Structures are given as C-alpha cells and as structure tokens.
Amino acid sequence: MIVEQLSLNASTWHNSLNKIEIVPNIVLLFVSPKFIAKAELIDQLLKRYPEVKLLGCSTAGEISGITVSDKTVSLTAIKFEHVQNRLETVEVENRDESFNAGVSLAEKLEFKDLKHILLFSDGLNVNGSDLVSGLRSVLPEIGITGGLAGDGLDFRETFVVANSLISDGIVVGLGLYGDHLKVGYSSKSGWYGFGIERLVTKSVNNTLYELDGLPALDIYKSFLGDEITGQSSAALRFPLSIRVNETEEPVVRTVVSLDEEHQGLTFTDRIPKGALVRLMNSNVNKLIDGAKYSAIEASNAINESGELAILISCAGRRKMLKQLVEEEVDAVRDVIGEKPKITGIYSYGEIGPFREFAPCKFHNQTMTITILSEC
Asked: d(Cα 325, Cα 345) in Å, to the nearest integer?
C-alpha cells in the first residue's frame, strides 16, 4: 500500500496534481464547500487515472496531516497492491428511505472476502442511525466506518463525491476485499454526562419536545441558561447522550436548532420516544483526550502503525476546540507515529464502532479513526 497526500487550494491545485508520483486505484477527496473548482478537479483526476475510484464529500473542515483547513481539498492517493475494491452508490430521496438505502448499499457491496466498508453520506437528508441499521441488517459482521458530509456550520447543503458524480441525496460506499487488508478503528468522544437520565415522552423524528412529561427546551435552559436561543451555535457545545434501552451503550447527539414556539430541540438524528437521554458537557482537555484514546484503541486493533489514518471528527468538536482544533489531530499523531499519512474531515456525523468487535453505530461529537494497512 502506497499513500501520497496533497492539500489543494484554489490558486495552485492544477500544478499540485503533478506531485502525485503513483498511479492510484483509490483517491479520497475531502472538499470544502467553498472550493469552487471541484468539478474541474475531478475531471482532471479521471482523465489522468481512468481506472481510479474517487470518493469523498464536503466538509466542515479538512484534515491533512496535522493541519485543519477551510477552502481546501484534502486529497489522498492510494495504491493497493493486493487489496481489491468496489465502489457503489445509492440515492436517498428523503430521510425515511435511509434504512432501505443501507440495505441496498450493503447488498451491492456483499461479495466474497469483503473485509471493510468506507462510507460517506449526504449530511442533511439522511438518517444516519437508520442508514447504519440497514447496512448491519445485511452485513452484521463487517466493519463499517465513515461519516456524513458537512457544510461548515451552515447546515444548508452538502454533497458526496463518487467518481464523476457530485451530488446531495446519495451515499457512497467503498468495499475493500481480501486477507491482505488490515484495519483498526475506534470512536471516542471525551464528553461526560451530568444531571439525571430522563425519559423521552414526546418526540417527532429528529425533534425532542418532552422529557419526563415536561417541555424539553425548559429543561435544557434550566441547566444552560437563556444564552442558548434560536439557531445559536452555542447549543453545539451541549449535546445529549441517548440510549434506546438500559443495556445499550449511549451515543451522543448534537443539537442543531431550538424551537422556542413549541419548546423543542432538533438534533442531527432521530430521538425516539421511550429513549433515555442525559445532558452532556466537556472541555478542551477532555476532547483532546478522547481523540488520543480513540487513536490508542485503533492502533491496538491493527497492531502496527499502518499506512493511512482517516479521521472523522465532528463539527461540534471543532466549535468547542476553536483555535485549538489542531491539538486533537496532533494528539492522534503522537499516538500513531510519523509513518501513517493522516486525512479526514469535520463532519455532521461519524460512523463506526466504539471499538474492535463492537457493532457499528452512528455518532455525533466523536473522533472516529480508521487505520488502514496492507500486508
């Protein structure tokens, strides 16, 4: 496995492509929504490498090495010597089709010796939990990692890249096949719960209206104060943990907007009635520690340094870390060493297991790491 990496900007990307010395069979493209020349870039790559598989998505920040940027493209060219690959897409016209989209994508990728799936999805029109559930219903034993496309902190429009296609409303999956592939992965957050766990007594899809029979927004503000209002991005700093039953490990869900009129909170994913939720908080040091522990677990799973680390972190984490955002990427580098190339995105949701042998989940507010190597 040979990996080459570039960070492209609007003024020099044409010349930068000449620095690629390998003939890749896979190129990952994590593209700022403000990078205007994305169609031209993809056209150039397909002309240079007619057999290549291109996949990726828009971002809320591009990770290249230990640098976090905006208005760029994090390009990673990969040449596998023995690992086979297959790229497939599915359309998702509305969120209610997310489970079936997961089933369809899994069926398209289900071939002999499937070892892992890299997955990137529309960030606004797909229910991440349902998508993952659909995939797991067909491929319960296969590792799946990836994330939902971002759009800065605007939450207006995202896109997915799949070869020449640049579109919203789609999910792309890359199946990796054969015993020569080695993969390690982990998802950790660094967030901690406070207050009591409460029962969801009224919700509709992604909007939570009542906890323990009381208006959800009133409870939220009773802890966090009236500074959390309207579309305030400050709400990103105070997510909820959620579990559907008492035996399940909780996942984190990000608040994206508040409904003052109906006393509701809208999240990035469905909040089902009967679920148990708890307010969460964190600080910079705990978030950085979460990234470090994710890297430790992913590295231990692969039992070597690997060639490429793909980091999917959350837009909410970036909001919390502010100018220290590169510290969590640097923490990953400290763990995995200098050998692996690092690429990734800040996303609207992360996909991956908590740890090796755990089931795949849809997360918010985690650092989800995938380390790849070929033997």
From this structure: 12
Q: Residue 357: what pLDDT?
A: 81
Average pLDDT per 10 consecutive residues for the chain, totaling 375 residues: 96 94 97 96 97 97 97 98 97 94 98 96 94 96 96 92 97 97 95 90 94 91 65 68 86 86 87 92 94 96 90 93 96 96 97 89 95 95
Residue 127 structure tokens = 């229910």
Contact 286/331 with Cβ under 8 angstroms?
A: no
264, two tokens: 């509701």
Q: Is the dihedral of CA 212, 361, 365, 292 positive or negative?
A: positive
Instruction: Give the closest residue to 129 by CA, choosing from 108, 102, 149.
Output: 102
How many domains does the chain divide into?
2
Radius of gyration over every alpha carbon of the chain, rounded to an integer in angstroms:
20
188 CB-near residues (< 8 Å, 6+ apart): 290, 291, 293, 294, 297, 354, 366, 367
Supply the pLDDT for residue 247: 80
Residue-number span of the structural domain to which 67 is assigned: 2-188+285-374
- First-to-last alpha carbon distance for the chain, in angstroms, is 8
What's the CATH number where 251 sits? 2.40.30
Residues 6 or more apart whose CB falls under 8 angstroms from that of 161 comprise 29, 31, 38, 42, 54, 55, 56, 57, 120, 172
The whole-angstrom separation of Cα 41 and Cα 368 is 27
Say if residue 249 is in the same domain as residue 336.
no
Contact call for residues 159 and 195 (beta carbons, < 8 A): no
What pLDDT, on a 0 to 100 scale, did the predictor assign at position 258? Answer: 85
Residues 146 and 295 in one domain: yes
DSSP category for residue 235: G
